[in-house]
Amino acid sequence: xxxxSSLTFFLAIFIFGITPGPGVFALxxxxxxxxxxxxxxxxxxxxxxxVIYLIFACLGLSTIAQNYALLFDIIRVVGALYxxxxxxxxxxxxxxxxxxxxxxxRKKDFYFGFMQGFLISxxxxxxxxxxxxxxxxxxxIKSLTxxxxxxxxxxxxxxxxxxxxxxxxxxxxxxxxxxxxxxLKRVNYTAxxxxxxxxxxxxFNKQT
Length: 208
Description:
This protein is mainly α. It has helices at residues 3-18, 22-34, 40-58, 64-67, 69-92, 103-122, 126-134, 146-176, 181-204. The chain is built from nine helices and no strands.
């Protein structure tokens, strides 16, 4: 890719990353309840899943969405049910101070957040279809080199993480103005509702 096409590709991926969808909704909910830092694992999971789809598209695996439709459906339903569960837990969670014993919780939260993000992105086969239609604008697919694939993957990682974490930080700053327990309970309720809405979107947004 030339410098111009690389910059355009980066900007397009950034915009794609912040476009409202299940992943963005999940980030908003997590940031509002746990803070922006706790969104890193979620954003990373989404990004890694997107990069895998990107590589598939680069390698010409354009038939994967059709050949593995049943697998995508299973992942989509599992991801939706998990978001329902997270939404319920947020809505019913008591308002209390953070526990000081974070050593194990942080590690578990990172893995759970990563898998949640990975599931959300992996359960949407529209992502690979986007890349299949999107990449020929910036890459000569017929003469694609390993260097091109590595560069595209690198730019995707940076653009997506930048976009997703920007959303997380803005959502967390919006939460900081809410100090009372009543307000925080509303935050939990709103975040939980967002999670459930994201799960509903995943469950019924079946791609054909």
